[in-house]
Amino acid sequence: MFNLIIGFLLVSSAPNFEILRDYGVDPCFGKAVAVVESGWNHDSNLAINKNNIFGMHGMSFNSVDECIHYFGVLMNKPIYKAKSIDEIGRIYCPANAFNWSEKVKAVMAKISGKWGGVSCTGNTIRERRRHVEFNLILNGKRLVTWS
After folding, report:
1. In principle, which of 56, 76, 93, 139 could form an S-S bond with 100, CB 3.0–4.6 Å?
2. Contacts (Cβ under 8 Å, ≥6 apart) of 105
3. How far apart are the C-alpha atoms of 133 and 25, rounded to whole Å?
4. Is the distance from CB of 75 to CB of 25 less than 8 angstroms?
C-alpha cells in the first residue's frame, strides 16, 4: 500500500509538480510540502474540497495544477525566496516550524532516496546557480547529503 501511494505522486496522472521548475522551485520540495500538508494521497479536507494540496488556509483552487502554480508564485515572493526549508517553515508554519521543516526534509529524502530520478537538490529553493549543501540528520545519524 505504501509503495502504491508513493507511486501516485510519481506517475503522470499525479499532480504535475514539474510546473514548479518554471518558478525556480525544486519539484521535490513542492511534493514534500504537499505530502506534509495533505498526506501521501492528497486526501486532506482542503485537498479534496478545495484542490488545495499545500494546506494554505482560506485558499480554494479550480484545479490542483492551479494550486501548484500558486505555490510557485508564493515561493518567489521576497518573504520566501532564497530561504532554507527551516526559514520557510518559520513563516509557512510558524506554530510548528521545526517539526514541519524536519518532516519536509524527511519526505524529500524518501522521495529521492528510494525512487531515483526524482529531483531533490537541497534544503533551499535558491536560484539554481548557487551551490547548496544539505545534510539530513535524524536522531544524530546523517541519512542523506545533497550538494
Report:
1. 93
2. 32, 85, 123, 134, 136
3. 16
4. yes
Only one residue has cell 498526506, namely 39
- pLDDT tens by residue, 81-90: 999 999 999 9
The pTM of the full predicted model, rounded to 2 decimals, is: 0.70
What does the pLDDT look like over 86-108, one tens digit per residue?
A: 999 999 999 998 899 999 999 99
* Residue 33, burial from CB neighbour count under 10 angstroms (0-12, 13-18, 19+): buried
Q: Within a 13 Å sphere around the CA of 61, how many CA atoms are in the beta-carbon half? A: 19
Cα–Cα distance measured from residue 102 to residue 118, given in angstroms and rounded to the nearest whole number: 19
